[in-house]
Amino acid sequence: MRPDTPAENVDHTAEAARLERSAGLYPEDAEALLLRAAAHRELSGDRPAATALYDRLLTSGASLDDPYLIRALKASNLWEYGHEAEARAIIDGIRTASPRDPAAWVIVAESLESHDELEQAHETFTEAVRLLLTNVPAPPRSTHPLLFGRHRVRRMLGASHDEWDALADTVHTLPITLDELHDPKRVWSLGSENPAELQAEILRLRAEVGAYREALSRPYPVAVLHWTAAELAELTAAYPSLTEEYPSYETHLATIEAALRELASSGTPNLGIVPGTVPSYEAFAASEGSSPTDTALLPQYATTLAARGRAVPWPPERSAACWCGSDRTYGECHGTDA
Question: Which of 172, 324, 332, 171 lies closest to 260, judged by CA?
């Protein structure tokens, strides 16, 4: 279950405990599982417990995928329950280290912004975009929240547009412009008694919520299962009945791309591709008390792997490597006629 699920639909404390137990069962996925558990602890109001989870990861001695992201989340959480000095020290350390992870920059900048440190937030956003986007022909999707956040803070500071604001406008895709979305005077319209003005503000707020959801650093994707050529050959050799599901490797790849495009066209967000392996699939089938030949297990297996942080977002940038593992870019491979 995603941490941003409304509180009335989930027991955040119980969900955090379940994820912590899963982290013990799957140590190779502990980072992704404990980060989600910490988010649930924060939403339950138990911020010290969330900090304990961040510290558990940082002191584990394991090789972490996103150590600066974890530090940024810890700093943001600490500040929320009165540990401002420690939070500032962590934020200063992250800025000095200049990580290449956009999500860490977004979190520390937004933490400063939320505590009315607008000048510091602006400096942090600017440091990040200069570090990550200077001489970059097209901003990767993961950096878009940096551009949007910087634009928002500059609007609140009353700064005039610059080249980075112009770049933010070019990657913004919502029907409401960034200038309108980030207008500081918008709040006053909430006191209006004019139904048309209130309706317009509702539309703007919906667009803003959509932008924030899109910017979640760890989305829980709707995932489609992908087997490499070697894994698929091993799977169908061990379980010949699955050749009906997977008649050939080329068909398998085409089916994945077609399914994801259909989901995207229907408005399904946060799509992903998750790689499967025969040993882990067999273990999953055993844990479900079923046989690997049961095709109903395949989407369940994909969902389970996605929940453990194994999914890769789809679609890739057109200039990025194709998800299928070929040596071509996505635009030249499965994204040719996208």
Answer: 324
